[in-house]
Amino acid sequence: QVQLVESGGGLVQAGGSLRLSCAASGLTFSSYRMGWFRQAPGKEREFVASINRSGSTVYYTDSVKGRFTSSRDNAKNTVYLQMSSLKPEDTAVYFCAARSSSTTYGYQQVSGYHYWGQGTQVTVSS
Predict the structure, then answer these.
(1) Is 29 helix (H, G, I), strand (E, B) or coil?
(2) Are strands 92-99 and 113-116 parallel, antiparallel or unpaired?
(3) How far apart are the first and last CA of the chain?
């Protein structure tokens, strides 16, 4: 049974930082590209970052470039999202996901990810 469990969310003031973690089990973690997505109230789930299997390449959505950094530790089956210079518009539930190896969807697309965590709330106050 595959499980992805996010942690590290919380309430932070604008300009602050948070580090999200996503612990994976039940899958060969190093074989999966991992993604981070977020969903604000009343909005669709949107792409944040995607990291390849080795961790050597990370793609970010434009709004978080220079502020967010994703990394992974395959020995610990964990992927991270370091968020800095947080803004109120970053407020959302953040999800990690494991991308299907056979998908034809792009790495930015929700449909390309087969396994999802339950999400962790990030709230940035102004």
Answers:
(1) helix
(2) antiparallel
(3) 40
Closest CA to 14 of 90, 65, 102: 90
Rounded to the nearest integer, the mean pLDDT of the chain is 97
Per the CB < 8 A criterion, the answer to whether 112 and 45 are in contact is: no
- The structure tokens listed for 35 are 């993604």
* Per-residue model confidence as pLDDT tens digits over 31-64: 999 999 999 999 999 999 999 999 999 999 999 9
Task: Please report where in the chains the tokens 């996901």 appear, as a residue.
Answer: 97
Distance of alpha carbon 90 from alpha carbon 123, whole angstroms: 7
The Cα–Cα gap between 25 and 76 comes to 10
CA-CA distance, 89 to 48, in Å (whole number)?
13
